[in-house]
């Protein structure tokens, strides 16, 4: 049943795009209508096949079955792991890269059962700092900079200016 | 020419080549950090170097990253770069059979062979092969793209309707953004970040890296400590070399496919292994092993990608037309060094070009040696607890999705793609046709439009034999498959 | 240089404003600025024309001014993402300098979905102007003809000549201007940028295409492609034998229909800092060693101060609105 529901959801999303494509003016809408139409027909064919032979969720895909099964424990911590990483990009513009990443990495490691907790936290701090430095000195990736990041930026800039 | 090539053996050039390869392997091996990103981030770094050295380093990074992607793909089933999706499919299956070192060795050597073949073609046949890029007009392109989609759809063993459904979903996702005819925004909901379409790299990271991070996280949360993979003894390079020699024809086919698709403008290394792998399966005596740990499948995928890398540089260097997105980045690198890629580059700045080509050969040799003899050290990755791997894969997935365009929106796209991948897996719609259709979809529509305008009549089409032949072959393959897998047959629906 | 700037100013319909480099150079460095590297924000991908301009400028400005400049690509929506960022969310403390080009910047809010306007930014300096080139393939039947010959051919075979354009953008607009004024009609073949059009032209799939000089420089030199005209009121220095469109009887203001590259800062950027940046970047653009560095990457500088750039903004805006209205395209102001 879950499979049918997901299939319906997929078809719903594709169908919504199809409905929107009707509003596209001129020739620009033709191609999307064709491929979306094809997708809907093929999803319908898939749904018919599902109805005929109702397979279980995660059949022939043990990895997926293990991921979504309620038994076996660890479901809560997996959801926590997902929540941590979903929160990370939202936190970055507010807290800055250094703080948000250190916190997320440490939380993720602790959730997934790091044996030595202090090592997980220390490791997260050191790693994030090294990554930050690499992004400023070797490769350049402008990650959201707030508070600590700006301080690091200023420090490096001042050091460089002092040397030159 | 010889002088130029020998210049690549100067200590500085050698050092830059090897450094490039190592950097590339590291970047490639980290899921989320793609080959294209590695080049984008290092173009500014090479700005300060001698032109030849900078280019050699970039060539090394490109070659190294393409192989590096296979390491994580084989060991933890997370392709490090989009070009290693197929390698991961075959390679991880081999690794689960306890053949990880063998798979990694094959990947390294095949990558090197593909790269060397493409380097040799660049050295001796560049002007001839480059013209091939120009004989392919919009009609031929449409035929080629449809052919690529169809061979992959019919090659997969999942039911045909589902493969096609995946393909159609991928094409539909590819229509998001400005349309190619009038520049009208489609399905963008007024969001500027969507105007140029979904960020492909972010989507692929979501499909393959983030989902796998979740799988690993669940396993870790259940108390699994390490990745359970018998690494076996490193049974020597001989077995690898014997396999390589006995697959001479596979290499010939894979390198041809890779070079050819590489030379085609705008077809990059991401889609190439799909086609090479599907083609190889047609020729194979053991097609049933494909997708379940077939060495031939792995060889074909890996060699074709590397050949594509070199191939995409051919029209760039001799015509000024980039053969792929990463090759387009090379234009920037060349221009910043005061070199203009185009018909005169070989004659005007032969010194730099030949040094670069020599460097590309050296980089590929270095990559083969590193790959072959450092395999045992890659196994260290397997000693790392699963929870740690999951956390870092998640972090780098975010970082990689962000860094392509420095956009947090793309991180959201990455998460949405991960959700879609899980949904598709849940209803047994294969992800590979979705990926290929998404990669090629935009290109297909653009070329369809130009095709419709420039080849308005049937007579005009008949005057283009290559296109007609490709269309005919595609139709034949499709018809044969549908006939063999009739509706009603369980393998259709 | 002053002569040219004056002409441009006169064209803008305004006062013949003389650029005053002396005044600008006297600008002093404000206290506590910069405190970190200055980011040059480029709304286009690495390796393109604007990106190469910005990277060269960043390197040269770093050398001339003695503090670090970096390039940050904010790519998406064909410039929309980066433009929106510069206008709406970039920090207005002088550490974010946008490098971009008109008419693309203005078109983003005049015809596209851009939720900003020219009032959200202030110009710092004008960098250069690269006109649009019309090119044909030497080995094709059209290869013998000059601009007038091609127009004649288009008149003889209405709708048959295929010209490469980018949809609803400068390339198509220039093509329409020529078509309307010369009374001819050609088939527009849409490409996503100049290079794919050049590829199609080289392969003989279209008859001519619009592109920028840097996209075809090697092919022109090798004699594979032939430049027919440039979309300006004067000839383009690297191509002294190629006529301007105005010379060939197409009415268009100079310096608008092409890539007019400039640097901007968010409106709220403190004036002393903006003036320091203006003076510093002007000094860089006039520095002989920098001019050489730009020439090496194929960029011909046309430095202009902020006041001049502001005036060009005005004339560009008027020209664009007039054109869009005339051709029946909706204009969002």
Automatic annotation (TrEMBL), chain A:
Keyword Transmembrane helix annotated: yes
> Pfam families, per this entry?
TctB
Q: Which UniProt keywords apply?
A: Membrane, Transmembrane, Transmembrane helix
Transmembrane ranges? Answer: 33-52, 64-88, 94-112, 119-139
Q: This protein's superkingdom? A: Bacteria
Domain DUF1468, first and last residues per copy? 5-144
Has the keyword Transit peptide been applied to this entry? Answer: no
Q: Any idea what this protein is called?
A: DUF1468 domain-containing protein
UniProt lineage? Bacteria, Pseudomonadati, Pseudomonadota, Alphaproteobacteria, Acetobacterales
From TrEMBL, chain B:
* Transmembrane helix found in the keyword field: yes
Question: Which superkingdom does the taxonomy of this entry point to?
Answer: Bacteria
**Keyword Transmembrane in record:** yes
Question: Keywords, A to Z?
Answer: Membrane, Transmembrane, Transmembrane helix
Q: Transmembrane ranges?
A: 12-43, 55-76, 102-126, 132-153, 160-178, 198-217, 313-334, 354-375, 382-402, 461-483
User: Which parts of the sequence belong to the DUF112 domain?
Assistant: 14-436
Cited PANTHER family: TRICARBOXYLIC TRANSPORT PROTEIN (PTHR35342:SF5)
Q: What name goes with this protein?
A: C4-dicarboxylate ABC transporter permease
Naturally occurring in which organism (per UniProt): Caldovatus sediminis
Automatic annotation (TrEMBL), chain C:
Q: Does the keyword Signal apply?
A: yes
Signal peptide (residue range): 1-26
Please indicate if the UniProt record lists Transmembrane as a keyword: no
Q: At the top level of its lineage, which domain of life is listed?
A: Bacteria
* Name the record gives this protein: Tripartite tricarboxylate transporter substrate binding protein
InterPro entries under this entry? BUG, Bug_dom1, TAT_signal
Please provide the record's keywords in A-Z order.
Signal
């Amino acid at each position: 049943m879950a499979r049918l529901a997901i299939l319906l959801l997929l078809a719903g999303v594709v169908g919504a795009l199809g409905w929107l494509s009707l509003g596209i003016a001129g020739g620009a809408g033709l191609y999307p209508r064709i491929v979306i139409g094809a997708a809907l027909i093929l999803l319908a064919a898939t749904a018919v096949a599902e109805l005929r032979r109702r397979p279980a969720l995660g059949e022939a895909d043990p990895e997926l079955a293990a991921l979504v099964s309620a038994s076996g424990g660890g479901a809560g911590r997996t959801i926590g792991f997902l929540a941590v990483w979903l929160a990370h990009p939202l936190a970055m513009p507010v807290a800055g890269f250094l703080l948000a990443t250190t916190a997320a990495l440490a939380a993720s490691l602790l959730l997934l059962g790091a044996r030595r907790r202090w090592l997980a936290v220390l490791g997260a701090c050191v790693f994030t700092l090294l990554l930050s430095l690499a992004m400023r000195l070797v490769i350049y990736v402008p990650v959201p900079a707030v508070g600590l990041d700006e301080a690091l930026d200023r420090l490096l800039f001042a050091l460089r200016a002092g040397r030159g | 020419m010889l002088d130029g090539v020998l210049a690549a053996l100067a200590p500085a050039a050698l050092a830059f080549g090897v450094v490039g390869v190592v950097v590339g392997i590291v970047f490639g091996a980290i899921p989320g950090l793609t080959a294209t990103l590695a080049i984008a981030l290092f173009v500014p770094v090479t700005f300060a170097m001698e032109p030849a050295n900078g280019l050699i380093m970039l060539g090394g990074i490109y070659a190294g990253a393409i192989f590096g992607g296979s390491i994580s793909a084989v060991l933890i089933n997370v392709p490090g770069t989009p070009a290693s999706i197929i390698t991961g499919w075959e390679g991880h299956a081999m690794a689960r059979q306890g053949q990880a070192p063998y798979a990694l060795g094959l990947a390294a050597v095949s990558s090197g062979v593909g790269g060397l073949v493409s380097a040799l073609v660049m050295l001796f046949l560049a002007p001839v092969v480059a013209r091939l890029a120009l004989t392919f007009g919009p009609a031929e392109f449409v035929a080629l793209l449809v052919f690529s989609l169809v061979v992959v759809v019919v090659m997969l063993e999942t039911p045909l309707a589902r493969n096609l459904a995946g393909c159609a979903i991928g094409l539909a996702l590819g229509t998001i953004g400005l349309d190619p005819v009038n520049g009208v925004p489609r399905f963008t909901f007024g969001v500027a970040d969507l105007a140029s379409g979904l960020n492909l790299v972010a989507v692929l990271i979501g499909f393959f890296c983030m989902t796998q991070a979740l799988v690993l996280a669940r396993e870790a949360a259940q108390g699994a400590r390490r990745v359970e993979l018998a690494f076996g003894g490193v049974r020597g390079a001989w077995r690898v070399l014997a396999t390589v020699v006995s697959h001479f024809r596979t290499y010939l086919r894979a390198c041809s496919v890779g070079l050819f698709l590489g030379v085609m403008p705008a077809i990059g290394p991401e889609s190439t292994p799909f086609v090479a792998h599907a083609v190889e399966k047609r020729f194979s005596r053991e097609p049933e092993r494909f997708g379940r740990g077939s060495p031939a499948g792995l060889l074909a995928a890996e060699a074709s990608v590397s050949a594509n890398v070199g191939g995409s540089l051919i029209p760039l260097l001799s015509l000024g037309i980039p053969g792929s997105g990463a090759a387009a980045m090379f234009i920037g690198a060349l221009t910043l060094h005061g070199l203009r890629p185009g018909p005169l580059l070989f004659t005007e700045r032969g010194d730099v070009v030949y040094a670069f080509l020599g460097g590309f050969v050296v980089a590929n040799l270095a990559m083969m040696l590193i790959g072959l003899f450092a395999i045992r050290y890659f196994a260290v990755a397997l000693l790392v607890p699963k929870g740690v791997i999951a956390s870092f894969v998640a972090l780098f997935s975010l970082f990689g999705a962000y860094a392509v365009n420095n956009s947090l929106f793309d991180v959201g796209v990455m998460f949405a793609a991960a959700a879609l991948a899980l949904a598709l897996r849940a209803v047994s719609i294969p992800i590979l046709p979705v990926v290929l259709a998404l990669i090629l979809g935009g290109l297909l529509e653009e070329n369809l439009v130009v095709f419709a305008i420039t080849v308005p009549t049937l007579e005009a089409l008949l005057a283009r034999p290559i296109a007609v032949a490709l269309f005919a072959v595609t139709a034949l393959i499709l018809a044969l498959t549908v006939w063999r897998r009739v509706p009603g047959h369980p393998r259709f629906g | 240089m002053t002569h040219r700037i004056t002409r441009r100013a006169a064209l803008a319909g305004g006062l013949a404003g003389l650029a005053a480099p002396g005044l600008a150079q006297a600008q002093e460095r404000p206290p506590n600025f910069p405190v970190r590297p200055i980011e040059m924000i480029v709304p286009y991908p690495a390796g393109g024309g604007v990106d190469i301009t910005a990277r060269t400028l960043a390197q040269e400005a770093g050398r001339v001014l003695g503090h670090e400049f970096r390039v940050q690509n904010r790519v998406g929506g064909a410039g929309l993402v980066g433009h929106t960022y510069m206008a709406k969310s970039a920090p207005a403390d002088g550490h974010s300098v946008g490098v971009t080009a008109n008419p693309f910047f203005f078109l983003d809010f005049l015809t596209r979905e851009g939720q900003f306007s020219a009032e959200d930014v202030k110009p710092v300096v004008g960098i250069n102007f690269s006109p649009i080139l019309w090119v044909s393939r030497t080995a094709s039947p059209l290869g013998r003809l000059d601009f007038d010959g091609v127009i004649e051919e288009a008149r003889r075979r209405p709708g048959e000549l295929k010209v490469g354009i980018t949809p609803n953008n400068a390339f198509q607009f220039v093509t329409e201007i020529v078509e309307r004024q010369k009374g001819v009609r050609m088939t527009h073949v849409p490409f996503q940028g100049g290079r794919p059009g050049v590829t199609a032209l080289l392969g003989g799939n279209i008859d001519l295409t619009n592109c920028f000089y840097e996209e075809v420089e090697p092919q022109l030199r090798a004699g594979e492609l032939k430049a027919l005209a440039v979309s300006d009121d004067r000839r383009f220095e690297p191509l002294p034998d190629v006529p301007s469109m105005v010379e060939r009887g197409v009415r268009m203001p100079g310096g608008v229909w092409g890539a007019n590259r400039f640097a901007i800062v968010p409106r709220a950027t403190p004036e002393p800092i903006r003036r320091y940046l203006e003076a510093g970047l002007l000094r860089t653009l006039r520095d002989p060693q920098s001019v050489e560095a730009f020439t090496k990457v194929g960029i011909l500088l046309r430095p202009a101060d902020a006041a001049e750039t502001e005036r060009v903004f005005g004339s560009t805006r008027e020209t664009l609105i007039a054109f869009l209205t005339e051709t029946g395209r909706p204009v969002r102001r």
